[in-house]
């Protein structure tokens, strides 16, 4: 009888553990090469504040896993607490979505060597960022020329300002076109809200109308709808 009770309790514990592992609709796994001791926090932005969804303690191993619940795809943060020093290279932004996502990185170069797989929205966002980074590099070159002219007390080329304005316009048009082309994914309203929120409203309106019903019901789809409604209201006043 005693053995029978132990067996039942063991099954109950196993069932409980099994249930815990399957909680939520997003399974995150990964490896931080070189990290043997420290903490990882999975965070989301809530009312302009970062809120922890899960805390993972690493002690002797570099691999980690977590399971959380997402109502719809959204940007989350994987924050690395190194335990011994602070660094600006410690908060990785990734586009999470229900399913299985893997994040591999390196302790020394946490952001630059991070690789996120398993999320279509992340894949699209990576494509978008690779082009935007080129626009940013060109912008930095123009700003550098401007600063050098100021330092050397020389006249800034009139073309510099023209080129900066043209570059900014091209970057905005690229972002709008990318969002429009990928309006069947949540990355579209996210880009509209974060990168081109001050663009001519007709472009944002086109993106909004191009969203699929599923995207329109998502977190960022709803936020874009609310944002545009508020902007249109203010412009009418």
Task: Give the SSE map.
Layout: H1 2-21, E1 26-33, E2 37-46, E3 49-59, E4 63-68, E5 74-81, E6 91-96, E7 99-106, E8 115-117, H2 120-151, H3 158-181, H4 187-194, H5 201-210, H6 213-216, H7 219-236
Parallel strand pairs: 1-7
Antiparallel strand pairs: 1-4, 2-3, 2-5, 5-6, 7-8
Helix pairs in contact: 2-3, 3-4, 4-7, 5-7
What composes the largest sheet?
Answer: 4 strands, mixed
Strand and helix order: HEEEEEEEEHHHHHH
What average pLDDT do the residues reach? Answer: 88
- What's the tally of helices? 7
Distance between the termini: 79 Å
Strand content: 25-35%
- Overall number of structural domains: 2
Residue runs with pLDDT of under 50 for 5 or more positions: 1-21
- Kindly name the structural category: alpha+beta
Radius of gyration: 23 Å
Helix content: 40-55%
Tell me what the structure shows.
This protein has 237 residues and is an alpha+beta fold. The chain has helices spanning 2-21, 120-151, 158-181, 187-194, 201-210, 213-216, 219-236; strands at residues 26-33, 37-46, 49-59, 63-68, 74-81, 91-96, 99-106, 115-117. The strands form two sheets. Strands 4-1-7-8 form a four-stranded mixed beta sheet, covered by helices on one side. It has a four-stranded antiparallel beta sheet with strand order 3-2-5-6. A hairpin with an 8-residue loop joins strand 7 (99-106) and strand 8.
Keywords:
237 residues; alpha+beta; Immunoglobulin-like; 2 domains; four-stranded mixed sheet; four-stranded antiparallel sheet; 7 helices; disordered N terminus
